[in-house]
């Protein structure tokens, strides 16, 4: 059962807020990232089976930049706003790379040391999808070298047990978390991009409505089938 559709708009707004904050932080601490003049800014998207459509893409087009997209399943609505290009092209041409896909065995560490080496120096990385998409060690090395100029992370590799618990006073055995927190050009939030009253209400309602429909033998828009 898939109930993600309602929260995509909220997540995209968090993405926009993260990017705007990173621009402000970069200007304050004088990080030499290529998008500070707002001219050659482009975005890279790994889309979740075309679910990020219309309004969500519109949020990002408001920055006045070119929108590049990569998806295993291109969507006609997205084509009206963004240009689909091969993954290698995205890595080489994008100033900001943002991830929006579920985690699978095939895309584990989609962004690793080899991927970061193909990007523009000073690229910005934003991940509001799944932590396993990025090799944390490789990202830390890229941030330290300046290959990555800034990062906004709502999710983190090996985050299980870190978030949604009261860890005050605990020694947290996650050196990557400590390293990211120590960097002035990294924004780290605790997997809450979706966590608004409206979206949580929508997810709960969707589950209950779908369960009732399933019990009655009625179709539901949240049903996931293997076709």
Fold and architecture overview:
By secondary structure, the chain is α/β, with parallel strands linked by helices. The protein contains eight helices and seven strands. It has helices at residues 8-29, 54-61, 76-79, 87-93, 113-117, 136-145, 175-181, 197-216; strands at residues 42-46, 66-70, 83-84, 96-99, 123-127, 148-153, 186-188. Strands 3-2-1-4-5-6-7 form a seven-stranded parallel sheet, sandwiched between helices. It is globular, with a radius of gyration of 18 Å. The model is unreliable at 27-42 and 44-54 (pLDDT under 50).
Keywords:
single chain; 227 residues; alpha/beta; seven-stranded parallel β-sheet; 8 helices; 37% helix
Furnish the topology, listing elements before pairings.
Blueprint lengths: L7 H22 L12 E5 L7 H8 L4 E5 L5 H4 L3 E2 L2 H7 L2 E4 L13 H5 L5 E5 L8 H10 L2 E6 L21 H7 L4 E3 L8 H20 L11
Gross morphology is globular
What does the main sheet amount to?
A: 7 strands, parallel
Q: Mean pLDDT across all residues, rounded? A: 78
Radius of gyration: 18 Å
Class by helix and strand content? alpha/beta
Strand fraction equals 5-15%
Q: List the total number of helices.
A: 8
Low-confidence stretches: 27-42, 44-54
Query: Major sheet: order of its strands?
Result: 3-2-1-4-5-6-7
Helix-strand string: HEHEHEHEHEHEHEH
Record field, number of beta strands: 7
N- and C-termini, Cα separation:
14 Å
**Helix percentage range:** 25-40%
